[in-house]
Structure formats: C-alpha cells, structure tokens
Write a structure and sequence with these properties.
By secondary structure, the protein is mostly helical. The chain has 5 helices and no strands. Helix 1 packs across helix 2 and helix 1 packs across helix 3.
C-alpha cells in the first residue's frame, strides 16, 4: 500500500509539472489557463494556504485541495497537450522544482485579507 501511495505521489508530481508547462500552451482554452494558473501557483508556492501547524486543517491543503485541483485541471486540458506536457515535465523534473513567487504573493494576499477582515470585525465589535 505504501508503494502504491508513493507511486501516486510521483505521478501527481509529474502532472503538476505538466500543468505548469500546459498553462503556456496556446491549444489550452483561456478558462482552463486561468484555473491552471491558480492551481500551479498554489502547488508550487513556498507558503501553504493553510499552514501545516494548524491541527487537521493544515494537512487538508496538502492531502485534498492540491490533488483535487490537479485532477480538475487535468480534465480541462486536451489529451494531446497533456501528452506533450508530460514528456516535457520529465525533463523539468530532472532540472529541479520550480517555485512560484506568484503563488507566494497570492497566499500572502489571502492571509492579509483575512487579517484585515478580522481587524475590521473586532474594531466594529469594540465600537458597538
């Protein structure tokens, strides 16, 4: 069972790199590129949307959200584009893992928005 999970993880990693490549392919529809951009930015972001130290929810990001996003994105891309992207992803894996600075910025913006809403809510509660 452990070997099967490791194999699935390797395939998911390869497909994440393939999505990174497919997002730049002109044969991919625009709506898929938007979704791909979000999935790739989130997957390769050095900062988690939900930090791992948060009990249970911290691993939700890694175990459910990321794989689900990858699976949904894979269904939006034409098969021939994914075949080409998977071949290119093998070469990319050999070169090392890309890091998404856009993904990191996106995560920081989400956290700042949550913080701003909390401050506003607390300030409003104290003034009432």
């Amino acid at each position: 069972m452990i070997e099967r999970l490791k194999s699935r993880a390797r395939l998911l990693k390869r497909d994440a790199y393939a999505l990174y490549i497919a997002a730049r392919d002109p044969r991919v529809p625009w709506y898929a590129k938007v979704f791909l951009g979000l999935v790739v930015a989130h997957t390769f972001s050095p900062i988690d949307l939900i930090p791992d130290f948060v009990p249970v929810l911290g691993y939700l990001d890694d175990l459910i959200i990321t794989p689900l996003g990858i699976v949904l994105a894979l269904r939006m891309i034409p098969q021939e584009v994914m075949a080409d992207a998977r071949r290119q992803s093998e070469e990319l894996i050999q070169q090392g893992k890309p890091i998404s600075r856009v993904g990191a910025v996106l995560v920081i913006v989400v956290w700042l928005a949550i913080l701003a809403i909390m401050v506003w809510w607390i300030a409003r509660a104290l003034n009432d």
